[in-house]
Amino acid sequence: MRVALDVPLAGPFDYRVPESLEAIKGQRVLVPFGRRELIGIVLDTIESPSYPEEQVKDILMVLDDLPPLRQDWLDFGQFAASYYHRPVGEVLLPAMPSALRKPGSYTGKLSKGGPVARLDRKKKKTRVPEPPEDRMHELNPEQQQAVDTVQSLKGFKTVLLHGVTGSGKTEVYLHLALDALTKGKQVLFLVPEINLTPQFEQALLARFQQVVGLEGLAVLHSGLAEGERLKAWVAIQRGQVRIVLGTRMAIFAPLQEAGLIIVDEEHDASYKQQEGLRYSARDLAIWRAHQLDIPVVLGSATPSLESWQHARLGRYLKLTLSKRAKTTYMPAIKLVDTKQIKLEQGFAPVVLHAIRERLARGEQSLVFLNRRGYAPVIHCASCGWMSQCPRCSVYTVMHRMPGHGNVLQCHHCGYYGRVPVKCPDCGNQDLEMLGRGTQRVEEFLQAAFPQACVERIDADSTRLKGSARQLFDRVHSGEIDILVGTQMVAKGHDFRKLGLVCVLNADAMLFSSDFRAPEKLFAQLAQVSGRAGRHVAGGEVLIQTAYPEQAVYQALIQHDYDTFANASLEERKITHLPPFSYQVLISAQAKTVNEAMQFLLEARQLLASQPQLAGFQAVINMYDPVPLRIVRVAHVERAQLLVESASRPVLQAFLGHWLPLVQEIGKRHRIRYFIEVDPLEI
Ligand code: ADP
Ligand code: ZN
Ligand code: ZN
User: Fold this and answer.
1) What does the entry list as the binding residues for Zn(2+) 1 (predicted)?
2) Engineered SS bond to 232: which of 53, 129, 218, 492, CB 3.0-4.6 Å?
């Protein structure tokens, strides 16, 4: 039989089933592998060993504690493996919770006494949902139209729900979900951020608890404890779950009778896994829906240009929610030109004034700054020394650590160091902190508005499990007056009392070399702006910038995504960039950037030198390999090679021929590298 194993070899692997055992497709089996024992998944029961009979080993045990994984799930994993060019075992096994794939995390036969059975006997935790704050809303005409259209679809269709922030996309999702549930189908609901799951969990439970029961909803994300994830997964695999809510990993949920997939904030980069299998859960959702012949709804106020282009071509069905559901007004977005004015601790006077006014009115303000820590770098004005990470080619960031004083921290490798009392190079005792991060802004605002409750939400303030949820609850309850935050606060949240949004360092992204930077900036600013005035009239957004004339800002103040997207697509078309081409990135890591570059150069040369690749020369474009912008992280130096084609199938076919040759070179150079299909960051 053929078995998928989580090892970095092509696989699948051949094993024999001894007389005493019986195994069927989709079951987990324990097998010997080298000197280890591993859990694998049976992909095929045919006896067709590709090497001599006597070398084929017996499987040791069949784990029949769960129903076998379904064929469609196996096919889905196999598709992902082939599309992203990874061994199938490295896709299928990591998709499962670790207790189901790590030998030793169980004892003996599992069907009765194993961890899964034990888990079932454990007293079920009672979840106390918040009282349903919003009942089913009566849909407005645009929402109704969207719901009707999707409900009338037969089979597979990708729907792009383009709805401005606050237009009630959630309400549309919920109506569609109810429709699927009442037809006896399951719903898969993907959200980009762990922190958005509680909000949706509450909304789903409030609406559907009567329909599906408390246990009919399973939540899957990487913030769960192993046991919680196992419990959710097992319940899904046993067919006890009607709604799966989760982040990108939930796309691998073993659904049985899905009727609808929803991808909220489909443009969000969090749908892209950045290690191991570098998949896009949004793209896989479309493939999965196609496989299951069901609709998939991609929702966003700022769709990715890829999705927008598909909609323009009519491949996706575009539905529009053009108005806000509650206040009907979009917040007024204003640009605060910082070129001519003196800033106070990074704030323009009008911005501080606006915060003060909101405070007086009892409304909340959000200060958005995508930079955590206290100061991005420490600097010596007399000799030019800067706080550089000893392991990476970046500066260390100063953080105030309660109880530890000030530390320098590297955001790339995790290095911690003391803040020197004097300059290590010249002895100057007057070291300066340059720039500001969320901590410093929080400190300043608390000093400037002593009567206000100021809080900060970023990766640092929410490190402890559950603390993010507590902080968000305090924002929702209205206790917090001024919220300082990174992108963590920008997405999806429906804060009721929030009237004002202030954006501090938007320009940082303006001159990035990444061709997607303007698209990302527009999306991010539209998202964070969309938090303002969702329930209160007179919502306002103030964006501080030294470049107010930039197209991206001009489109933002007009709330004109369409014009911005269409113009951006014209540029992409002229420059042959995605979505008008398809890309693959090979990133190599070595002791020195020269070794990495050498490997990539050899990989690149294959196209010209190998006769079997000759046919691709006209249809594949390879850029020159380049060192990464941040070339060194944790003593490892990095370079990358970008490969491009106007055709996705051509690119895939080329990879099929080229990557095995690249692997040979990689072995010879003993180099670590990885492949990223459809990279989002270049
Ligand atoms: P978004 O499109 O940004 O996801 P939401 O779904 O969060 O917007 O909706 C914004 C607010 O409008 C929510 O508080 C929601 O309860 C409310 N809402 C949605 N639809 C309606 C409706 N038809 N009538 C009244 N309020 C609605
Ligand atoms: Zn110095
Ligand atoms: Zn570092």
Assistant:
1) 380, 383, 423, 426
2) 218
